[in-house]
């Protein structure tokens, strides 16, 4: 066995402590899958969600993914009705509050009712945003921003793959 001088250990120890600190602190900001820390009316295992949803839908609804801008079915949708959660069919938004935001995602200035959504702080990607999840099943739907039209001034920026549509 090779014996290293104590000086080498003293030089390596601070680097090891710094590396360990970086790993510890960087993992604190990472989000963990699918809102399992809250009780929702609709609860399923990941296996059950995967059987119900496509891979893309699962990524968005359960892993907080985002679809590409201008790729979603409901970006230019102008039919009258209700937009529901793809995972549990909970009513989320009315077509009456849908507007063209130019962002590439379906946008609404208000949600359907007090049983529709929950707002959560999202610190991923290095900035604070407000995440929107379905109140009934906890699925990720999108985010809300304060640059929308009157009367609310809000823009609920949603993923088309997280929604279904029920015509009036």
Polypeptide structure, described:
The chain has 168 residues and is α+β, with helices and mostly antiparallel strands. It has a single domain (42-167), classed as Peptide methionine sulfoxide reductase (Metal Binding Protein, Guanine Nucleotide Exchange Factor, Chain A). Helices cover 23% and strands 24% of the residues. The protein is built from three helices and nine strands, in the order H-H-H-E-E-E-E-E-E-E-E-E. Strands 3-4-8-7-6-5 form a six-stranded antiparallel β-sheet. A three-stranded antiparallel β-sheet has the order 2-1-9, with no helix packed on it.
Summary tags:
168 residues; Metal Binding Protein, Guanine Nucleotide Exchange Factor, Chain A; six-stranded antiparallel beta sheet; three-stranded antiparallel beta sheet; 3 helices; 24% strand; globular
Task: Give a topology summary.
Elements: H1 6-28, H2 46-52, H3 55-63, E1 81-85, E2 91-94, E3 98-99, E4 107-108, E5 117-122, E6 129-134, E7 140-145, E8 155-158, E9 163-167
Antiparallel strand pairs: 1-2, 1-9, 3-4, 4-8, 5-6, 6-7, 7-8
Count of spatially separate domains: 1
Termini separation (Å)?
79 Å
CATH homolog superfamily: Peptide methionine sulfoxide reductase
- CATH arch. level architecture: Beta Complex
Helix proportion range: 10-25%
Beta strand count: 9
Structural class: alpha+beta
Reading the helices and strands in chain order gives: HHHEEEEEEEEE
What is the CATH C level class, in words? Mainly Beta
Tell me the major beta sheet: 6 strands, antiparallel
């Amino acid at each position: 066995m090779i014996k290293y001088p104590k000086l080498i250990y003293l030089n390596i120890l601070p680097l090891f402590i710094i590396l360990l600190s970086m790993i510890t602190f960087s993992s604190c900001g990472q989000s963990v899958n699918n809102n399992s820390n809250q009780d929702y009316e609709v609860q399923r295992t990941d296996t059950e969600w995967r059987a119900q949803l496509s891979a893309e839908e699962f990524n968005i609804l359960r892993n907080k993914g985002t679809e590409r801008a201008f790729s979603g079915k409901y970006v230019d949708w102008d039919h009258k009705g209700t937009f529901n959660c793809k995972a549990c069919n909970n009513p989320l938004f009315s077509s009456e509050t849908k507007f063209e935001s130019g962002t590439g995602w379906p946008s609404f200035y208000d949600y359907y009712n007090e049983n529709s959504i929950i707002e959560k702080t999202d610190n991923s990607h290095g900035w604070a945003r407000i995440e929107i999840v379905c109140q009934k099943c906890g699925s990720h739907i999108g985010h809300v921003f304060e640059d929308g039209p009157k009367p609310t001034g809000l823009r609920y920026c949603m993923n088309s793959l997280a929604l279904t549509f029920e015509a009036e």
